[in-house]
Amino acid sequence: MRMFLLPIAALLSPGSLLAETRPALSPPEIVAVAPASDWVRIAPADLLVMDLAPTAASTPRRVVIQLLPAPFSQGWTGNIRKLAAARFWDGTAVVRVQDNYVAQWGDPEAEDAAKARPLPTDLAVMAESAYTTVLPKGTPVVSGASRGDTYANRTAFVAGWPVALDRVKTGGAGAWPIHCYGMVGAGRNMSPDTGTGAELYAVIGHAPRHLDRNIALVGRVIEGIEHLSSLPRGTGPLGFYETAQERTAITAVRLGTELADLPAYEYLFTESASFARYADARANRRDAFFIRPAGGADICNIPVPVRRAK
Amino acid sequence: MRMFLLPIAALLSPGSLLAETRPALSPPEIVAVAPASDWVRIAPADLLVMDLAPTAASTPRRVVIQLLPAPFSQGWTGNIRKLAAARFWDGTAVVRVQDNYVAQWGDPEAEDAAKARPLPTDLAVMAESAYTTVLPKGTPVVSGASRGDTYANRTAFVAGWPVALDRVKTGGAGAWPIHCYGMVGAGRNMSPDTGTGAELYAVIGHAPRHLDRNIALVGRVIEGIEHLSSLPRGTGPLGFYETAQERTAITAVRLGTELADLPAYEYLFTESASFARYADARANRRDAFFIRPAGGADICNIPVPVRRAK
Question: Record's superkingdom (chains A, B) (predicted)?
Fold first, then answer.
């Protein structure tokens, strides 16, 4: 009774099963055997590295975020690069953790003009129209096994990211990134404010797709999400912490290019045969534990594999 | 920049907005103004109450679970009642917490025949066919605003629960409960084992719908999910803890009928006008923060409101 999924190690070992009785590969097994040529290195310039204060047991807590590539959210990610270079987040904190929703961080005094940290003066101000992007014609779009979306005409993977697509009359497809688990967005005040990128949140629950096109996504957590998702939930409205003592301090946020000791990361190329196989297996589990493949998967149930490069 | 959703208290206060400029009610506001007649009391006999060991700061940690009603999963919930009466879980532990997936608890020695706790001898053994249920003809089924499901012909609410439906040729609709955030299921070993109910898990991430009809759901956490979702993630395969010290001890699991001091709980009747209004607002956010209503919602984004009775 102890497990409801076999350990990956057990499935990867040759074991005693004859080849002809061996079940189909599971999604993690497909990822494990994907050739090196199916992985894409993530540029350090596209990484944002956030160090939280160590735990009481002195365990370090590093959260690695991959920023969205062009053409998505470039105004916000440009601001985020400036904010990191200005050391804006050093000494700020995780201010809100709402269960099944988001963990949010930034300047705890942002609402108090007398105490708020100054923002760099050259931040871009984005229009709400920038929540949606027109993909250049010819942009590769891969459905994987995602189908039957409730929130968009179609969902697909674009350059390694989960994206929703609507037809637009001219100039290609209207597209926007999707609020899947682990995605990072830019908090904002009431419309028409669109946020600068100084206040960020990560999704730590069921995909809040109603936020799509209502708030800017800027990236995703590729390592260390557990340092945010396992934080104590705030007890104030919307999961804000009620006292400063409850917050988790942020010691530093740096771009990947500033950190000499950062490992290299890579993602499974979403146009590769391995990804197609992986996505199909996520939608149709045929490995030994499963008795009834689902026949489909929503796009947030096909997380793009990301790992430290070998 | 501090918030990306207004505090509920602010929206509920009369404020200074004129009536004609006031935005539409948010889902929590609709729930707050629902009349008492739209709420259904949950019988204490349908509650399973799990007390985890207090935190280092002596904070109590109680998790309240509502068991699935007939006709769903009755073999497993019957076993769970017997296991609670036998004090089976007292002194067991949370053994696994896998990020964006599940927290799982039970006898840490279940796999070791020499050390495993004895199970009650009169537990039922369920067939895999019991993962799906034929709804009696005439069972009220409410779609709410759920549409466009990837995993089933249709999703709907049945007596306060998220349920997937397929047409069956005779005898009504084939139905099964859905693995939404907070749902509780019965761990099992490889098929044809279906689990006894002695090993349980709660969903703490994006709905793992591929588990639907592959494993039995038995209920949902209605209070205290944060005591499971904010636990440290296990570092072994599948999020199992690697040492006994990392586990969180379970001090007691009792049926609601055994606890004199348990508050009363109620859920918003899914056939009520208030629920229809709430579900529509979840699918089409028209409250002040939102600029673009989604036009739909997947069923796991319409969590059934549950609260302590007033």
Answer: Bacteria
Q: Taking Cα atoms as reference points, which of B196, B221, B220, B201 lies closest to residue B211?
A: B201
Per-residue pLDDT at B15 exceeds 80: no
The answer to whether residue A225 is domain-embedded is: yes
Q: What is the CATH classification number for the domain harbouring A202?
A: 2.40.100.10
pLDDT of the residue at A8? 39
Percentage of chain A lying above the pLDDT 90 cut: 82
Which range of residues forms the domain containing residue B78?
40-111+121-272+297-308
Under the banding of pLDDT at 50, 70 and 90, the label for residue B172 is low
User: Does some domain include residue A137?
Assistant: yes
Residue B111 distance to chain A (closest CA, Å): 6
CA-to-CA dists, residue B184 to A64, A100, B24, B208, angstroms:
31, 15, 34, 12
Per-residue model confidence (pLDDT) at position B171? 63
Report the alpha-carbon distance of residue B156 to residue B161 in Å, rounded: 8
Q: Provide DSSP, chain B.
A: ---SS--HHHHHS--S--GGGPPPPPHHHHHHT--GGGEEEPPGGGEEEEEEPPPTT---EEEEEEEPPTTSSHHHHHHHHHHHHTTTTTT-EEEEEETTTEEEEE-TTTT-TTTPPPPPTT-----GGGGSEEPPTT---B-TTB---SSSSEEEEETTEEEEEEE-SSSSEEEEE---TTEEEE---STT----SSSEEEE-SS--GGGTTTSEEEEEEEE-THHHHTSPPP-SGGGB-SSGGGSEEEEEEEEGGG-TTPPPEEEE-TTSHHHHHHHHHHHS--STT-SS--S-B-GGGSPPPEEE--
Domain count, chain B: 1
d(CA A225, CA A204): 8
Q: Does B291 touch chain A (CB under 8 A)?
A: yes
Going by C-alpha positions, the residue among A258, A221, A185 that lies closest to residue A64 is A221
CB pairs under 8 A between A and B: 212
Structure ipTM = 0.93
B206, B288, B297: residue with CB nearest A301: B206
Q: Is residue A291 part of a domain?
A: no
**CA B54: distance to chain centroid?**
22
Which of A58-67, B149-158, B198-207, B230-239 is the least confident region?
Answer: B149-158
Cβ B64 vs Cβ B49: under 8 Å: yes
What pLDDT, on the 0 to 100 scale, is given for residue A224? 98
Percent of chain B with pLDDT over 90: 82
**What would the pLDDT profile of A271-291 be if each residue is shown by its tens digit?**
999 999 999 999 999 988 999
Nearest in space to A309 (alpha carbons), one of A54, A3, A43: A43
Q: Does A191 touch chain B (CB under 8 A)?
A: yes
- How far is residue A98 CA from its own chain's centroid? 17
Buried b (16+ CB within 10 A) or exposed e, B167-183: eeeeebbbbbbbbbbbb
Please check whether residue B8 touches A, CB under 8 A: yes
* Residue A167 pLDDT level (bands cut at 50, 70, 90): confident
Question: Nearest 5 degrees, angle CA A197-CA A89-CA A101?
Answer: 60
